Amino acid sequence: MIQNDYYSQAVHGPFQLISIGALELEEGGTIPDCRLAVATHGTLNARKDNAILVPTWYSGTSKIIEQVYIGPGHALDPDRYFIVQINQIGSGLSSSPHNSGGDIAMARFPHVRIGDDVRAQQRLLAQHFGIERLALVVGGSMGAQQTWEWAVRFPDRVKRAAPIAGTAKNTEHDYLFAETLIEAITTDPAFRDGRYADSADVIAGLRRHARLWTVMGWSVDFFREGRHRALGFESVADFTERFMIGYFGPMDPNDLLCMAWKWQRGDVSRHAGGDLAAALGRIRAKMTVMPISHDMFFPPEDCRREQQMVAGSELRVLDSIDGHFALLGTDPAMVAQVDEHLKALLAAPVD
After folding, report:
1. Of the listed 117, 188, 295, 322, which one is catalytic?
2. Which member of 141, 199, 313, 320 is catalytic?
């Protein structure tokens, strides 16, 4: 266990740490005291049928999602819904390599799958809030992977689902993308096979990791159109240093690697012996699939192929040259599109 003030209430709060007890993992091993960092907004009604779950994405926490997508006027309106944000395992807020001790500290932290997150979330919702069915599950990127998993694993517990910029089964191309991010960190000599004394020791690897995200997380058109200047950065070098390295630099390398491993292996077809169509055929939720037009991680065509396997679903492509990182709220027009599509989905009748 190491100290990292980045993962604090001051930076990412308020959130509550809730223990769900021991969590046995799909790949073997156990998190003996699995703690989930939870932020809630709004009030759960007496019928407990106004709950919305928002899981988090790679590197992101509930705070950025709250700042961009939750509030009056948004589809995720706390005046109407009880919104539960659960930070994924490995996020740095929930149980993660850097904040665990004993046999699962640091590089000894066991492999976690998307399904482990979803089972943990379901347990927390049922035991802590008494929520058995969700009005909506919505998440971006790795949050979308969790949304797909929810809809397939618990088809009777999800009324509506909206995966944004993420697929039900990760592609080989995306797996390779993520592999470069992993190697950027692990090839830093200071990483020491995950046994570093301080996250800051691995800053060279974290900087390489951030530069790769700069290349892949945005789009060619983002730089061609000078969007970095519109965001307040005088050059690409300035944008890379202050925005991208400023974002990833304080994070814990082992936490990032924990999330990257499960991102690479996100695959709901595991529920149907590798048959993706059969797995997606289990979905009963009313679903709107929202890829981002210029996303190089989860391009629209990959999302369209899966969406066409879900009966009654809709595809709504979010138009933004900001690419995958438009999820951060850099493009207000795209956030407005998300709100429009989520409002329509929430208004749609379900069985």
Report:
1. 295
2. 141
Predicted TM-score of the model (pTM) = 0.97
| Cross-strand bridge partners of residue 41 | 83
Q: Is 295 a catalytic residue?
A: yes
**Which helix (H) or strand (E) covers residue 161, if one does?**
strand 160-164
Alpha-carbon dihedral 230, 232, 237, 238, rounded to 10 degrees: 180
Q: Which of 12, 41, 209, 324 is catalytic?
A: 324
At residue 58, what is the residue type? Y
Convert the pLDDT of each residue in 77-92 to its tens digit.
999 999 999 999 999 9
Active site residue 209: no
**CA-based diameter of the chain, in Å?**
56
- DSSP for 36-98, please give it: EEEEEES---TT---EEEEE--TT--HHHHHHHHBSTTSSB-TTT-EEEEEPPTTSSSSS-TT
- Does the annotation count 156 as an active-site position? no
